Amino acid sequence: MGTYYDNSIVPDHLKRNFDVYDRIKELNLDLGSFESEVGSLKGAGICGIIFHESGLTYLSGHGYGPGQMYDDPERIKEGQEAAEWIANSMIKRLHWGLTCGGEGGDLNDIIYTVKALGMVVSTDVAFNGGPAVMNGFSERWQSVFGGGAGEFAIDGEDQSYSGVHARSAIGGFTGRFSIEPEIIVAIPPELSRAIIQNRGWVFPLPPAVLEKVTAEQG
User: Which residues of 104-130 are buried (b: 16+ CB within 10 A; e: fewer)?
Assistant: First the structure.
């Protein structure tokens, strides 16, 4: 496990006994590379991650999918697959946000997941499938970090529940995609402070910071 996680406030009976990266490998998630995933904030209006000294870590939403959702089983499945794709993308983003500065943290230092919000695109006033679409996101998140709805759960039970989150899933939005989830996770405050002190609270990185951490990568 991560050093920060091992020293966190999580009681022993709730601590994960698996390496998150083993699950990522088994799920065939591609985490990309430093060169492809660690970029500059130059010209950006928003960021992908904000680190707070309390340990709360906020990930911006990401929209994806074939378009408006409606209550058809095949269309719901398409939405779930889009939501899962977004979860994969956010896990990759979070990995690089935690590791790029060399502070010693990684995805194993996620203490638990706090809150997810899924905004499902549908102008159909009778649409009832928003939560079902968002399940594609939540189930993938639990597959990686632990939870009874994840792929590694047996009969609804997992060794850890650090991927389980409070959640809202609502429809009624317009857009050129199917769903836009966002999520908040908790990391040890010591790790968050180390990140902020070393490279700031934001990811992607300010240009001067990107130059610094790239040079440190060798």
Answer: ebbbbbbbbbeebbbbbbbeeeebebb
Going from N- to C-terminal start, the domains of the chain cover: 3-7+33-38+46-200
Planar angle of CA 102, 51, 160, nearest 5 degrees: 85
Count Cα atoms within 13 angstroms, Cβ side, for 23.
Answer: 25
Residues 183/59, Cβ–Cβ less than 8 Å: yes
Return the amino acid letter for 170.
I
* 43-61 pLDDT, tens digit each: 999 999 999 999 999 999 9
| Whole-number CA gyration radius for the chain | 18
Q: What is the pTM of this model?
A: 0.97
Residue 95 DSSP SS3: helix
Q: Does domain 3-7+33-38+46-200 have CATH number 3.30.1330.40?
A: yes
Q: How far apart are CA 106 and CA 104, in angstroms?
A: 7
